Amino acid sequence: MGRLFIKVIIIIIAALLLFIPANNFVKDSYDYNINRDILAFKKNPHPVDIINLGASHSMYGYYFKPTGLSHLDLALPAQTVQYDFKLLKEYGKHLKPDGVVIISISQMTFANFEILDIGNYYEILDHSEIEPFRLLDYYRYMYFPGANGESVNAALSGTLKSYRWDSHKPWANNGKSYAERKYEHVEAQYRQATKKNYVEQNVKQLRKMLEYCKEQGYQVILTMEPVHQTYQEHFDEDVMNRLVFQYLDTLEIDAPFLNYMNDPRFADNKGLFLDSDHLNSEGRKKYSWIVYEDLKKLGYF
Amino acid sequence: MTFISIEFLLFFAAIVFTYYGIPHRWRWVLLLAASYSFYASLSSYFVLLLLASTVFTYFTGMLIEKQETKKQKKKAMLLGICVLLFFLGWFKYFNFVNDSVRALSTYLNWNYAVPYQEIVLPVAISFYTFQAVSYLVDIYKGKQKAERHYGYFSIYFAFFPQLVAGPIERAKKLLPQFKVEQTLNYENLSYGMKRIAWGFFKKTLIADRLAPIVAGVYDSPDPTGSQIVLATILFSIQLYADFSALSDIAIGCTRMLGIKLTENFKQPHFAVSIGDFWNRWHITLSNWLRDYIFVPLCKGKKKRSEIYVAIVITFLVSGIWHGAAWTFVLWGLIHGFYRVFGDHTKHARGRMASFIRLDKSPSLHKWVKIAITFLLVCFSRVFFRSDSVAAAFENARLFLTFSSWKPSGIVEAAEMFSLLDLVIFGFFFVIMQVFHYIERKNASTWTWLSQRPAFARVAVYILIVVSILVFGVSGEGFIYGGF
To answer: What domain of life (chain B) (predicted)?
Structure first.
């Protein structure tokens, strides 16, 4: 029996030794640290002029530093309206009295029901706000992210960006392949969401969040970030009505809605995009200036 | 708590330590408590149903034994089986029958007003009901004595490693093992750990990596033919990896407690005929169906056509057992047809192989048979995986369309994977095939491995553990856990 014990110990030690570099690799990856700005803000909070919520479109959409506004970006990939609301409740107190909350609406807003990585919220939200919160998952995420296959995949994909099928590259076939795959993904997600009643839940959450903003005296605007024309081809007026606007209409929102989705200043300029639906740093700066100026025109700031 | 979780490993480690730390006379209490706790963690609502089924089967078994005449014993047995099947039927098949009758009534313009009922399927009900039926029939046939010790009997009914998805065991194999005092044994512990690790490997590195790809195609409203072909082949691999992993973990866990379960898989995708496939796939269910459905149906039958009817009925039961949907009924019928057709054309096919001289090269002949069997099994799984009969027929049409098999289309369909995922999956799939290859050449890969130098052995174990730790992904439970 002692032999077995020694063997098991050797295997565990060797496995752990091999695991340490893999764990560090994941811990240092961009995806694992995707919430770094929010974490930094949490450690050093200060009053802000603008808070933006939303998913990746919003996360890659705003950079207000050149405008002189202080800004807190609370958007994270695949963030649901439910988590927008949770983050707003947690960080809204830092908004200046005349500050603005940007609620980003995208093609997935009402269909999105699955948090891509709940671990993103462990450090930036109170644990009671995280559903479901499991202690083992928490410790695994915090100390052993290398033991999570999805995190390893994300870290590897981030490092080996060029290691993709041609059709998976953002601008292959002029971005059409990417846009088509994204469209199929959104449609599949929407089908699931309607089947499982998630759309209704998201509408309810958005309504509650808007009511909360009103109670707190926050100034709210809704936005839709610009996308490239290859993306627009799939998400035409009919599709957007079905996925988004029919639900927005039921909310009868008392706030401006700035829809830049088909904005011609972006639509045919690949140089402003990472892929057909996410802005790059240049696009982000340009777009943020436009939003800033439009907000000023509307009497904000 | 599912098998693929740290919670389960900690829970099981605690059970093993306690099991060997307490006197034998108390072990049944530990196993019973562990089994009910495990079941409650999966399906707390239905613990009472499990308890009621156990008590009922326990007393029915004794009642059968007490009867004096064969006729009385049969009556008691049939009563017991009817009650057990009523529970199974109510929870698993009520809505299936209800929906079917409603559809038929609508078609015939009849008035049928029984509404759809929200009925939750109790976890493992199909598995423990079959075990209970075999117990009662074996008592009736005099192959098994009714168990008097309620504790041991309850463990047989609810034994946690094999409760969720088998292997479906017979009382005469399992009960005596519970009663024997198991001692701490190096071989058992070592073998058990390896089997559990191998189960984790197959589940987290093969099955759960394939699951989203397969679901992506089968949930899509308009998949291409090549996508259906590729997704169906991948589904076959997923299903095997998923279900056999469950059996590996069950066998590994029980072995660590000194108990041996029946092997449930023998590389089914290397079967040379459909008959051979069913001797290698879900073996304990195949044996159950043979002993309790097929053999009784064949009793007194001599004509080939009557045997064929028995075969089709047996596969129909197999289909219905798997799931309460017409797609599973069709899947069972397809296998029944395969089996009958295979038997009926056996000699003609032999002659054809001689005519084209395929029998001159036995190895090639064997691989041709393996490939044909695998494709036939894949075709049937289109029905197994599809969500509705209409979707199943459309997917089957795509599967059988010649252009769906164009290599360029298949390569294009492979782009459903990210390139990185494909490489990772491919690597682990090759490891699984190497394992199978060694098993085909030797009796057991683990025995073969134990004859290698210590360094090589430890390296393999480390590879398995690190792979699971770093690359393993965990999905939502096991496919057969839902049956």
So the answer is: Bacteria
